[in-house]
Structures are given as structure tokens and as C-alpha cells.
């Protein structure tokens, strides 16, 4: 006699990809799909022959690239059809991206507590 169990809940893999794209967590994805984390992990491994982490990383990368592109465009500014700059972009975003990608940092602005011998603050 065949083993009777609960029928497998179908997983909408297109929806999974969209949720990963917008960086939803595994808990959030499972909640939307209506399955447990263990079930989702097993089903990913069976269907795609890779771990959940590998499959998630593959499907979330596009969202990160889109976000990065949007940030970059926001920082640089808009261009017209001829490639001419229409505006100077967002300076705050330029500073943030400079810190992230160019190792730029703000110079510390400490107060002078004591001058070296021979210097007079009034002369400086």
C-alpha cells in the first residue's frame, strides 16, 4: 500500500526570486510562501541541487545591483540625451559612496588643547 501523507505545498519559485531580489529574509520568504524554513531548504536542495544560501545569493544579487545603480545615478546626477549633465547629483550620496568605495574619510576636527613650545595662539 502506498504511503499516504500530506500533499506537498507547491512553491512559487518566481515569487521566491522576486522576494530574494528585494532582499527579504528567509523568515519573510517562508511566511509569504506558507512553508517552514526547513521545508524551503529541503525543496531548494532537491529542485536546484544547491544549498538555500547559494540559491538565495544567486537570486538576490540582481536586487543589490539595481540598488547600487540607483544610488550611483542619484549621486552622479541626471544626464540628457546627449550625455550632458542636467544636475550635479546628490552630494550626500557622493560623500557616502566615496567613503565606501574610495576609502575617503572625514578629517578629525579636534580642539587644540596645548600648543608646542614657542608658538603663540594669537600669532597663528
Describe this structure as you would to a colleague.
The protein is mainly alpha-helical. It has one domain. It has helices at 13-21, 26-33, 37-48, 52-76, 91-101. Helix 4 packs across helix 5 (91-101). The termini are far apart.
Tertiary shape: elongated
State the secondary-structure class. mainly alpha
Count of domains: 1
Q: How much strand content do the residues show?
A: under 5%
Oligomer: single chain
By DSSP (H or I, 4+ residues per run), the number of helices equals: 5
What is the tally of beta strands?
0
Intertermini distance: 96 Å
Low-confidence stretches: none
The major pleated sheet works out as: none
Kindly state the percentage of residues in helix: 40-55%
Give helix and strand order, one letter per element, not per position.
HHHHH
Mean pLDDT rating: 86
* CA gyration radius, whole angstroms: 26 Å
